[in-house]
Amino acid sequence: MSKTVICSLCNSKMKEESFAEHAKNHWKENEAIAYFKYAEPQYSPKQLDALEQIGALEEHFGYGRWFTQGELLNMTAHTMNALVEKGDLEEQNYKELSYYRIIKKYGD
Ligand SMILES: [Zn+2]
């Protein structure tokens, strides 16, 4: 099973093999070079897929935005709940829908 890594520049979580591609996003930022560290606890492939999709959404539409499960491909409420419990997402209910947002963990 692939390991989970965290990007040193934006704190995004992803599968280890996705990191090289992800790091290209940072080439323009002050010539900073991103590196990764291994994440704890381990995430399931499904949860990593969700985090990667959310990271891509944020990159496209802006950081800190709220989104619904329906904006992610092949995602279940079970996976979303697991990410809330792990402290990666916060959840808010609005008009009978659950909205989620990434909690950035800075300073580690
Ligand atoms: Zn990054």
Describe the structure in your own words.
The protein is of the alpha+beta class and 108 residues long. 29% of the residues lie in helices and 22% in strands. The strands form 2 sheets. A 3-stranded antiparallel sheet has the order 2-1-3. The protein has a 3-stranded antiparallel sheet with strand order 4-6-5, with helices on one face. It is globular, with a radius of gyration of 14 Å. The two termini are 25 Å apart. The protein binds zinc ion (ZN). Residues 7, 9-10, 12, 22, 25-26, 34 line the site of zinc ion.
Q: How are the strands of the biggest sheet laid out side by side?
A: 2-1-3
Question: What's the domain count?
Answer: 2
| Separation, N- and C-terminal Cα atoms | 25 Å
CATH architecture of the largest domain: Orthogonal Bundle
Low-confidence spans: pLDDT under 50, at least 5 residues? none
Mean pLDDT: 85
Beta percentage is 15-25%
**Ligands bound here?**
zinc ion
Number of strands: 6
- Count of alpha/pi helices: 3
For the structure shown, list the relevant keywords.
single chain; 108 residues; alpha+beta; Arc Repressor Mutant, subunit A; 3-stranded antiparallel sheet; 6 strands; 29% helix; 22% strand; binds zinc ion
